Design the sequence.
């Protein structure tokens, strides 16, 4: 029987770096660390944390949802982006506008699938399991994402 | 030459993602998260709130730290968690605290199996005409007959309902009769030891028909209001109890060991809220009163009310309750005869001996007391008698062996609803997906006769009564800013960049507008109030409403969607490319003249680019009916195409701008047939953003940031300056009034968007609902004319407010979709609904997680209603919140479930 580690500090230490990369693809580099911190705070404080079967997948979903929530707060996001435009110029390399434009054309879910597919090389089945989606949904979303990315990147 | 292969695209995407990932900042140290999760958190609401408060403190702390970092100032003070208000504890117990009249001497008995609720199986329907007080009798030759009004002077001939009811192998255990339920009588089918068939509740649907088994078990009593009846069944050592709700078509079951001594007869309390079981405890010679909640079938308590005199009963006899006669509980036992007790204390009563009391000379083989407790029928010495309280018995028949009164039923089970379109979405076409479409609501008073403009600085304005006031009856008034947009004239250095509003219309007082076309696809938003924040509706850049403004068509770069706010359903067709694989771009969408089709004007890019008109069926299939080529030209020469509007007869007007910027109008009538000539409009060659008035008489357009109106055959008239686009409002006037209020300043709290408007108190004036949050605390606060309505605190995180007029009575109910992180997926999959009806928060439903169950909004008879989907294997059962079963559907494979539950309202 696999022992599931739910100690927040251990789980955070194991996954935080990759979660921030994930958040960067979802919402951009500015604030990605805050986004992950917010998501983890909520996840660790959740009454469900003690019973979560797959803490890693749970955290990825939490980050995805936190990104969605942040995206809904358009004004706050805009303010944050403006703040970041002043303070984050020290982080090379800066992604090209095309990359930003391309990924911002995707939904958060599509960005998540793109991240898992192209950065973590995970299979459709694994992505579906991680995000709690049907495999066909993953395939469909990936198709839509590629179509949109093609418009910008090619 | 550009490499357009999939490999090349994958390489580009991989490089793009890698580039972005490498800009990721370092994660914040764990210590900065400022949380100290407890190792064990019992699942109590207040613990969850406390945990959330702790989390809030952490978030606030981080936010303060971030702010202080940005401002370079000292850290802000973190508010103490204990200073936050806590919600009142909500008692969701369904049993009222009125049971104290009977002292509890032992704790509630355990409930081994729990409660389930499902549809009333095989709802009986028939044509039997029976009334309370009619007698059901089993004749000596095995027939079941109905004897109407047995004490009448001329009772008439009995009606044979079923013959051959008894067989040599069947041991009859007592007749019972409920009904008629939907024209069918319910009764017991005897135990058949030859076939090992247990007792069953059966339906008798018409004279002469064979009884049809309904469910295993024995038929019990009917509630006083005549809407529910009981069935209980021995299952091993347990008694499973089921309460059939005739009115709602549901059955609630609970397997329980709460009925020692075999369960006995359950009586309904006077208010039908509880069931009383008066039995003798297992051989202890005690009279035990067990109270059961009639909704949950859960034991409330079990109390010894009397130590019985052993002389009443034999050593192995368990008394059983015959019923209530003249207000007294009547117990029977084989040795001690029949005893009367007062209710509910079970004090032995000195009751005048009824004639049906067995004696040495009067051997009673069957007895039933009518539901009113005033009439009994029995079979003694082969003769059937009927007696009312205070009267002498009357012999009515001599050929019956069993009798039972027809217990009154006051409700019918509603007929299964006709097929509800979209109730069970079918995902047979991988290019189709379905979703919930709930109309936004707002307080913007707009109607035909008003106009919308986009200013040069990007803002969107409403101009009340700006077009033909005498015709439309709208009084001209000062323009109102609806949306503040970024100024498109300013340089963009980063971020999404300013969009421009590309389409606009109204539904339910909310502005729906499309923002074109950044990022990439653009977005469609709804705005509930003037200058209010917008909320996403969909990806896309063009939206078109039908004449009722209840159906909307929307397009985005890779698909078309149809939202039907009357049915609450939406469908999207993913359209990747043209049929020949060429890239195609949707430019604009509109409705056909008869509104049975959606017409999309698109450009197809291949060796010889073309403009095409694609006709889609405006239903749940979005079937492509035809694509008709309109223009052909080389890249850069293909004229741009946009929909200007529709004439009074529905003819679609299209504006087309050529490569030399000259503009022309084209007209498409029914069948997408292009008309050679249209109204006599001669436009300036550099006009942009052409729009047609709802009566088809006038055009609006802009030239160099100046807007003009032009009537057919007349010269243009300047309408305004610093305007880049003008639309006519074509949607109907609001059916609601509004009484706005200014939300109180809230430096401590956040108001969630979108804000909604709903007439909660039914006075014809909609109230603004403030959905507010302070970290883990959420509440709803009406203001406006309903400022006296209570503040509704949500003990779980609120997500969405959905004003829905469920009953269609003009009074809006409020559904609160709420969820926490209880589920394995901390997002929409878990929803909790609360219903605010008038001023009362009616109910919280249990938290349900999408996956095993789902939730959506479905239009039923024109009213959008929240629907729960319970899944059992491949079968879905759709129910309303009150338990009404709408139907079931069995899918053929697991794959069909894909995306079905992406339906949250």
Sequence:
């Amino acid at each position: 029987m696999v022992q599931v580690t739910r100690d927040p500090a251990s789980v955070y230490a194991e996954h935080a770096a990759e979660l921030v990369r994930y958040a960067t693809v979802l919402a951009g580099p500015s604030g990605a660390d805050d986004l992950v911190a917010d998501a983890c705070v909520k996840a660790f404080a959740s009454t469900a944390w003690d019973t979560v079967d797959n803490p890693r997948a749970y955290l990825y979903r939490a980050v995805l949802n936190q990104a969605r929530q942040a995206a809904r707060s358009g004004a706050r996001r805009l303010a944050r982006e403006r703040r970041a435009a002043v303070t984050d110029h020290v982080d090379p390399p800066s992604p090209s506008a095309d990359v930003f434009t391309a990924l911002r054309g995707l939904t958060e879910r599509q960005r998540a699938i793109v991240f898992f597919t192209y950065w973590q090389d995970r299979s459709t089945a694994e992505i579906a399991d991680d995000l709690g989606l049907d495999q066909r949904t993953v395939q469909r979303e990936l198709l839509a994402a590629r179509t949109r990315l093609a418009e910008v990147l090619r | 030459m550009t490499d357009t292969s999939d490999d090349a695209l994958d390489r580009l995407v991989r490089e793009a993602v890698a580039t972005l990932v490498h800009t990721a900042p370092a994660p914040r140290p764990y210590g900065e998260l400022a949380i100290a999760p407890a190792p064990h958190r019992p699942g109590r609401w207040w613990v969850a709130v406390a945990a959330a408060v702790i989390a809030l403190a952490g978030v606030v702390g981080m936010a303060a730290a971030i702010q202080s970092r940005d401002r370079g100032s000292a850290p802000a003070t973190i508010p103490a968690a204990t200073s936050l208000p806590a919600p009142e504890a909500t008692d969701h117990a369904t049993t009222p605290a009125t049971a104290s009249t009977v002292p509890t001497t032992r704790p509630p008995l355990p409930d081994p199996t729990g409660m389930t609720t499902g549809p009333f199986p095989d709802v009986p329907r028939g044509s039997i005409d029976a009334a309370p007080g009619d007698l059901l009798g089993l004749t000596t030759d095995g027939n079941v007959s109905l004897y109407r009004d047995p004490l009448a002077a001329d009772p008439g001939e009995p009606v044979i309902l079923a013959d051959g009811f008894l067989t040599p192998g069947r041991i009859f255990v007592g007749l019972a009769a409920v009904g008629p339920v939907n024209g069918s009588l319910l009764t017991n089918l005897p135990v058949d030891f030859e076939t090992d068939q247990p007792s069953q509740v059966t339906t008798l649907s018409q004279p002469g028909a064979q009884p049809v088994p309904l469910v295993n078990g024995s038929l019990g009593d009917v509630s006083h209001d005549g809407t529910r009846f009981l069935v209980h069944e021995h299952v091993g050592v347990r008694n499973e109890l089921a309460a059939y709700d005739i009115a709602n078509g549901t059955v609630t079951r609970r397997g329980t060991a709460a009925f020692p001594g075999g369960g006995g007869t359950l009586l309904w309390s006077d208010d039908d809220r509880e069931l009383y079981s008066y039995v003798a405890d297992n051989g202890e010679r005690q009279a035990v009163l067990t109270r059961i909640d009639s909704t949950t079938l859960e034991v409330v308590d079990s109390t010894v009310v009397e130590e019985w005199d052993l002389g009443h009963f034999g050593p192995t006899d368990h008394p059983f309750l015959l019923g209530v006669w003249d207000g007294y509980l009547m117990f029977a036992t084989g040795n001690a005869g029949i005893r009367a007790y007062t209710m509910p204390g079970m004090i032995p009563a000195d009751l005048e001996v009824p004639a049906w009391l067995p004696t040495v000379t009067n051997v009673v083989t069957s007895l039933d007391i009518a539901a009113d407790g005033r009439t009994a029928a029995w079979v003694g010495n082969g003769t059937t008698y009927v007696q009312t309280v205070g009267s002498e018995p009357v012999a009515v028949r001599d050929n019956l062996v069993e009798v039972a009164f027809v217990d009154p039923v006051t409700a019918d089970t509603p007929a299964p609803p006709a097929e509800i379109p979209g109730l069970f979405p079918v995902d047979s076409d991988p290019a189709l997906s379905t979703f919930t479409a709930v109309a936004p609501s707002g307080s913007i008073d707009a109607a035909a006769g008003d106009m919308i403009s986009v200013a040069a600085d990007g803002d969107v304005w409403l101009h009340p009564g700006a077009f033909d006031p005498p015709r439309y009856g709208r009084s001209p008034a000062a323009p109102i800013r609806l949306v503040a947009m970024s100024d498109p004239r300013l340089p963009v250095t980063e971020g999404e960049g300013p969009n421009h509003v590309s389409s606009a219309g109204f539904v339910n007082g909310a502005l729906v507008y499309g923002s074109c076309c950044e990022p990439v696809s653009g977005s469609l938003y709804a705005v509930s109030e003037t200058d209010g924040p917008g909320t996403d509706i969909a990806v896309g850049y063009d939206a078109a409403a039908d004449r009722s403004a209840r159906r909307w068509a929307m397009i985005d770069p890779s698909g078309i969607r149809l939202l039907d706010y009357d049915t609450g359903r939406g469908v999207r067709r993913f359209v990747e490319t043209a049929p020949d694989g060429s890239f195609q771009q949707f430019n604009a969408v509109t409705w056909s003249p008869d509104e049975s089709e959606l017409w999309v004007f698109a450009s197809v890019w291949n060796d010889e680019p073309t403009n095409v008109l694609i006709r889609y069926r405006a239903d749940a299939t979005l079937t492509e009916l035809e694509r008709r080529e309109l223009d052909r030209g080389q890249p850069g020469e293909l004229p741009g195409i946009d929909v200007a509007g529709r004439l009074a007869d529905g003819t679609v007007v299209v504006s087309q701008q050529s490569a030399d910027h000259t503009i022309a109008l084209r007209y498409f009538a029914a069948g997408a047939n292009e008309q050679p000539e249209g109204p006599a409009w001669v436009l300036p060659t550099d006009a942009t953003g052409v729009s047609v008035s709802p009566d088809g008489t006038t055009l609006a357009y802009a030239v160099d940031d100046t807007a003009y109106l032009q009537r057919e055959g007349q010269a243009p008239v300047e309408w305004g300056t610093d305007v880049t686009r003008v639309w006519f409002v074509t949607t109907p006037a609001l059916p609601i009034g509004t009484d706005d209020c200014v939300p109180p300043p809230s430096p401590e709290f956040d108001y969630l968007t979108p804000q909604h408007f709903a007439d909660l108190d039914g006075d014809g004036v909609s109230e603004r609902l403030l959905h507010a949050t302070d970290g883990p605390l959420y509440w709803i606060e009406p203001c406006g004319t309903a400022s006296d309505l209570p503040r509704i605190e949500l003990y779980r995180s609120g997500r969405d407010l959905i004003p829905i007029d469920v009953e269609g009575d003009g009074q809006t109910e409020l559904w609160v979709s709420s969820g926490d992180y209880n589920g394995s997926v901390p997002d929409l999959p878990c929803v909790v609904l609360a219903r605010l009806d008038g001023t009362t928060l009616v109910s919280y439903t249990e938290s349900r997680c999408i996956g095993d169950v789902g939730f959506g909004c479905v239009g039923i008879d024109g009213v959008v209603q929240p629907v729960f989907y319970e899944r059992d294997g491949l079968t879905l059962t759709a129910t309303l919140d009150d338990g009404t079963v709408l139907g079931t559907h069995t899918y053929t494979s697991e794959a069909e479930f894909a995306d079905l539950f992406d339906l949250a309202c």
